[in-house]
Amino acid sequence: MILIAGLGNPGTKYEHTRHNAGFDTIDRLAARHGIVIERPDRKALRGDGVIEGQKVILIKPQTFMNLSGESVGDFANFYKLDPATQVVVFSDDVDLDCGNLRIRKKGSAGGHNGLKNIIEHLGTDKFIRIRIGTGHMLPHGDMISHVLGRLDQSDQKLFDEASKRACDACEMIIAGDIDGAMNKFNQKNSHNK
Q1: How many CB atoms lie within 10 A of CB 190?
Q2: What is the DSSP letter of 13?
Q3: Block means of pLDDT (10 residues each) for the chain, length 193 residues?
Q4: Is 127 assigned a ligand-binding role in the annotation?
Q5: 172: buried, middle or exposed (CB in 10 Å: 19+, 13-18, 0-12)?
Q6: What is the predicted pLDDT for the residue at 6?
Q7: Looking at residue 166, which CATH number applies to its domain?
Q8: Which residues pair with 58 in a beta bridge?
Q9: Which residues of this protein are annotated with the site description Stabilizes the basic form of H active site to accept a proton (predicted)?
Q10: Per-residue pLDDT at 191
Q11: Residue 79 in marked binding region
Q12: Are the C-beta atoms of 68 and 5 separated by less than 8 Å?
């Protein structure tokens, strides 16, 4: 069994903002595989299905971004999952150009409060994260306004392509090829290749 979490903030006010890249991407993955994410469970909306022959639980934590770990940690503990191999997280990354992906098996939160909270609740930084670039903030800009803002039309197109590739990468990871996914999708400006 693999737990896949898409990070974001609940509520229509936050729909399709940069910070909700994880929600948008997990919705895309769910739609590909006919999984409906709507059942409330452990401070999240949950959907169950099978991807690449593996049982999966797809979740969208409903605790707001900074407390995402409460739900992710609760699922991991309840199902006795090994975070290093059975937890995958989709999140936004404002340090990546829009359209780029960064897949890691472990590491710091990189200033992302949702990932930081997941590390705290899992008790480890060893879990797979697929970070989706949402573009850099303008110099002297306000970070909160930036992450809660929406992409312009050209960046939205880049994001949509990256979100599709993030789903492709996740499918490879579920199939057991994390290294292959990292090699294929971590290339800088891979959306131009």
Answers
A1: 15
A2: G
A3: 96 86 96 98 98 97 95 98 97 89 93 94 97 76 63 80 96 96 80 43
A4: no
A5: buried
A6: 97
A7: 3.40.50.1470
A8: 4, 47
A9: 92
A10: 46
A11: no
A12: yes
| Number of domains observed in the structure of the chain | 1
75 is in an annotated binding site: no
Half-sphere exposure of 50 (CA within 13 A, CB side): 3
Report residue 35 as tokens: 């999984």
Strand partners, 178: none
pLDDT for the residue numbered 190 = 44
Q: Which two tokens stand for residue 120?
A: 């705290």
**CA pair distance 32, 61, nearest whole angstrom:** 20
The size of the chain, in residues, is 193
What is the set of active-site residues? 19
> Tokens standing for 88?
């995958």
Q: What long-range pairs does 26-34 form, CB within 8 A, spacing at least 24?
A: 26/58, 26/59, 26/60, 26/90, 28/163, 28/164, 28/167, 29/4, 29/58, 29/167, 29/170, 30/58, 32/167
pLDDT value at position 193? Answer: 40
CA dihedral for 154, 91, 58, 51, sign (positive or negative):
positive
Task: Identify the domain containing residue 73 by its residue range.
Answer: 2-192
Of 56, 60, 53, give the one whose Cα is nearest residue 25. 60
59, 46 Cβ separation under 8 angstroms: yes
- Tokens describing residue 178: 């994390």
